[in-house]
Automatic annotation (TrEMBL):
Keywords: Carbohydrate metabolism, Glycosidase, Hydrolase, Polysaccharide degradation, Signal, Xylan degradation. It comes from the Bacteria. Residues 334-456 form the CBM6 domain. Residues 1-21 form the signal peptide. This is Family 43 glycosylhydrolase. The active site is at D52, E217. The record marks D150 as: Important for catalytic activity, responsible for pKa modulation of the active site Glu and correct orientation of both the proton donor and substrate. The lineage of its organism: Bacteria, Pseudomonadati, Bacteroidota, Bacteroidia, Marinilabiliales. SUPFAM superfamilies: Arabinanase/levansucrase/invertase, Galactose-binding domain-like. GO terms for biological process: xylan catabolic process. Belongs to the glycosyl hydrolase 43 family. It holds the Pfam family CBM_6. It comes from Draconibacterium halophilum. GO terms for molecular function: carbohydrate binding; hydrolase activity, hydrolyzing O-glycosyl compounds.
Length: 456
């Protein structure tokens, strides 16, 4: 009884602050193990995916999802871009753990661990897939495949690519230029074992509080201003995030301290990804806040931070506010995918062959918030592509969920749930930059599906 009351109180407090929240950045699915990639002016965020129903009280993870943003506050859902089914040779139905994607020579390489099956790679011509298996087998061959998880990849300035991974040890290979094979002349059959000592990986407390280096899993490897960084989950369980640096991509590593400490709303795991984007630095991680504290239902969060002048990383606090300033405004006079979301409640996304990803599971009072929308001198019309066999409406509001009402689009039977039609309505003109709220109304469940919207 007490537990139930605490959970209700927890959710009430959480919802009370939602107006200001940006974290977690995805609310339609549980998304863990964030791996951001900057490509062509856009951040592509690859995540693992904790299913809504946890099986056998363990990680329940079947696919990898992708989201993108050009402003760091609105995220467009590209759906599940790869899954365990991408590997014809695999007979496992669970274990799609922490991925990372990188671009090289116009191809996109998605490195994925499959729990108990080691590290594999998928390739695509676009950052959002379709990803296919170029090898027909796993990429990394070792005699410790249960420990071969959490790949992280970086191509150095001289063209040499490195793939690091591992729990509780850290291994690496030097990838060949094709990115799907590696140099077998080094280490053990090409696999080099990193020296795991406390000078390299800290001695605050080791794995599970035992003495020893604190490195546990989830490495994130990159170079910045000629310094190589290894950021990782440490001292599980629960994990904090720590980091080490080196002047060489192959170490030796030197322990530098905490990046994110443990906190009650963080999960028993944590997993980082770091990027520089449009002049700012961002730290991605996951929390268990959205699920009300379930460690197998985690969600991706982001914080903006600044490196210290000497290149060290400050201790970063997990916040609800997350990224407070968008790096650019959103243009609503171009088609905006409905699944471009800063915050939403009650919604899911699905995809079909006609329109790709769309917003679904729309019930009365569910809503989408889109941040930093530049309404310019004001718009006269709101148009939306929708599909439904029922009826409902979309209220177009600004600044708050119950903020100024600009107009209401009535969404009536378009002839079926996949029968898409563009409907429009006149709206009141509002000028300048605002957060836009699309609030859904109607008496039924699953009122309609929503593909895109645009102002005119
Ligand atoms: O998400 C499954 C596993 O949990 C990841 O591979 C680890 O990094 C930890 O986050």
């Amino acid at each position: 009884m007490k537990t139930k009351f605490s959970l209700v109180l927890f959710i009430a407090l959480f919802l009370a602050t939602v107006g200001y929240a940006q974290n977690p950045i995805i609310q339609t699915y549980y998304t863990a193990d964030p791996a951001p990639m900057v490509y062509d002016g856009t951040v592509y965020l690859y995540t693992s995916h904790d299913e809504d129903s946890t099986v056998n009280n363990f990680f329940t993870m079947y696919d990898w999802r992708c989201y993108s943003s050009t402003d760091m506050v609105n995220w467009t859902d590209h759906g599940a871009v790869a899954s365990l089914k991408s590997f014809a040779w695999l007979d496992k139905t669970n274990g799609a753990w922490a991925p990372q994607c990188i671009e090289r020579n116009g191809k996109f390489y998605l490195y994925v661990p499959i729990h108990g099956e080691g590290v594999s790679v998928l390739v695509a011509d676009s950052p959002t897939g379709p990803f296919t298996d170029p090898l027909g087998k796993r990429l990394i061959e070792t005699d410790h495949i249960w420990q071969d998880i959490d790949p992280t990849v970086y191509v150095d300035d001289d063209g040499q690519a490195y793939l690091y991974w591992g729990n509780p040890k850290l291994w690496y290979v030097k990838l060949n230029e094709d990115m799907i094979s590696y140099d077998h002349s080094i280490g053990q059959n090409g696999v080099v074992s990193t020296e795991m000592n406390t000078e390299a990986f800290g001695s605050h407390n080791g794995r599970d509080g035992k003495p020893g280096p604190s490195y546990t899993e989830g490495p994130w490897f990159y170079k910045r201003n000629n310094l190589y960084y290894m950021v990782y989950a440490a001292a599980g369980i629960p994990e904090y995030i720590a980091y080490s640096t080196s002047i060489s991509p192959e170490g030796p590593w030197s322990y530098k301290g905490f990046v994110m400490e443990r906190a009650p709303h963080l999960a028993f795991t944590n997993h980082s990804g770091i990027i520089d984007f449009k002049g700012n630095s961002y730290f991605f991680y996951h929390s268990q806040e959205l699920s009300g504290g379930e460690g197998f239902k985690r969600s991706t969060c982001v914080e903006q931070f600044e490196y210290n002048p000497n290149g060290t990383i400050p201790v970063i606090k997990p916040t609800k506010e997350g990224v407070t300033t968008s790096v650019e405004n959103l243009n609503p006079f171009k088609r905006v995918e409905a699944e471009t979301i800063a915050w939403s409640e009650g919604l899911k996304t699905k995809s079909d062959e006609k329109v790709g990803v769309y917003v679904s599971n729309i019930d009365n009072n569910d809503f989408i918030k889109i941040r930093s929308v530049d309404l310019g001198k004001g718009a006269k019309k709101f148009a939306a592509n929708v599909a439904t066999a029922k009826s409902g409406s979309i209220e177009i509001r600004i600044d708050e969920k119950d903020g100024e009402l600009l107009g209401v689009l009535s969404v009536t039977g378009t002839g079926g749930e996949q029968n898409w039609k563009t409907l429009s309505t006149k709206i009141k003109e509002a000028k300048g930059v605002h957060d836009v709220y699309l609030v859904f109304k109607g008496e039924d469940k699953d009122l309609f599906n929503f593909d895109w919207w645009q102002l005119k």
